[in-house]
Amino acid sequence: MGMGTISWSRKAVKQLRKINKADQPKIYDAAQALAHMPNVQNVKTLVNHQYGYRLRVGNYRILFDWDGGVKIVNIEEIINGADGRPAFVVLPYADYISSRPKDDLVPNAVVGYMVKDGLTPIGAWRKHLDLTQAQVAERLGISQSAYAQQEAAERPRKATREKIAAALGIPVQSLDL
Cβ distance 71 to 7 under 8 Å? Predict the structure, then answer.
């Protein structure tokens, strides 16, 4: 069987970025195995659950759906009780109650550039779209060095994100990770 595609919900990318930096690559690398669904170890089919499957990675659970392609929708941290068995799941209550829209996906490569290469969301999208800083700067009508500063900013202003998203041809919410 060939390799399937992997996409991440924006929520899952945000959750991944909040996890300890040392654990992020482990979770990302484990998620790469999901491209080989259904032949993946440590995957459990969920019954009566919002999502279809889960992959165990240490104390974390990657929750995802699979329909020929993998959509990672949530990452949860499991805290064990005194008996060593799972006792708590750590996630925001709003995330527990709600689910994300189906079209709210981030390509796996973009997440990889952020986790593995340490790029900001803007830099990761630019690299994914195979553009140079100079090309994006030209689209914005600014110098390459000015664009490089904007790309390096961990949380650029909303107006800046809107302009860059338009220049990259992606929805602005794709930069809000």
Answer: yes
